[in-house]
Amino acid sequence: MRFALNVPNFGEYGDARLLAELAREAEGSGWDGFFLWDHIAWEGAERYADPWISLAAIAVATSSIRIGPMVTPLPRRRPWKVAHEAATLDRLSGGRLIFGAGLGGREREFGFFGEEPDAKRRAAMLDEGLEILTKMWSGEPFTYRGTHYGITEARLTPPPAQRPRIPVWIAGTWPRKKPFLRALRWDGYAPVGKAGSPITPRDVREMSDSASEQRGRDEPFDIRITGSTNGESPDEVRRKVAPFAEAGATWWDENLPPSGMSFGEARERVRLGPPDVG
After folding, report:
1. Among 139, 141, 137, which residue's Cα sits nearest to residue 99?
2. Is-contact 249 274, C-beta < 8 A?
3. Which secondary structure element, helix H or strand E, spans residue 160, and what is its range?
4. Burial of 45 per CB tally in 10 Å (0-12, 13-18, 19+)
5. Paired sense of beta strands 150-154 and 142-145, if any
6. Over 90: is that where the pLDDT of 213 sits?
7. What crossing angle do the helices spanning 234-247 and 201-215 adopt, rounded to 10°?
């Protein structure tokens, strides 16, 4: 299991310089990843930092830690623009980008800005958008005709540093099957539980077994679990995190919440390093 930080892009975190400093400290403290939220209208929030510009600053400030948006609601972005941004960021970071994508779970971030409000239409837009990303990241010319997008004679050069492409993780609410089946077509799954139903090690075992059955046991597939170990004893941390690793989770994302923990407290948690589950 590898360990990352799950970081908001607003409030006290809404400053690209501070995020870059925090990521540099995370790398020095032994964390494996630094993943940034992508929100533009969180209830009650102020002081937003654009996640992609912040990730560029983070890429320059670090050298080995994996980075990425977790997750970008692709249906409220132009996929060809995202493809260029991601390819540039991947090259800037030396091939360290993981691209997290989803429908977008906060309706206000679509309705407030005149974007598509219907979740089913956004799901179709997500699938088309991901196909466009893949074609653009190939570096080869292509034409695309879908229900929601049309592209004529496009080509992206240079392509991303990672070949054949940047890893893609798909977010979704467990145990809904459609998001999970979408994730199985890509490289990883970033599940959240339904309200009041957190993800359990048993859930992860079911995800892992299904991935092995449908993709083959030799085909890599990441499962990212988000949680908090702040203020817990080493024994409590092991009891919480180890069962997820044993069930098949490959990443633990330590959540730095936008409320209930000051930026200073979050920084101290980062400096303590990742959970010890040995």
Report:
1. 137
2. no
3. none
4. middle
5. antiparallel
6. yes
7. 30
What tokens appear for 64 in the block?
Answer: 């080995």
Q: Which amino acid is at 202?
A: R
Chain segment 113-130, per-residue pLDDT in tens: 888 999 999 999 999 999
Tell me the two tokens of residue 142: 């292509």
Q: Please name which of 179, 169, 235, 180 lies closest in space to residue 204, comparing C-alpha atoms.
A: 180
Give Cβ neighbours of residue 148 (< 8 Å, ≥ 6 apart).
121, 124, 125, 128
Contact assessment for residue 71 and residue 38, using Cβ atoms and an 8 Å cutoff: yes
Two tokens at 109?
């971030």
- Give the global pTM: 0.96
Residue 180 sits at the vertex; the CA angle it makes with 174 and 186, to the nearest 5 degrees, is 145
Buried b (16+ CB within 10 A) or exposed e, 144-156: beeeeeeeeeeeb
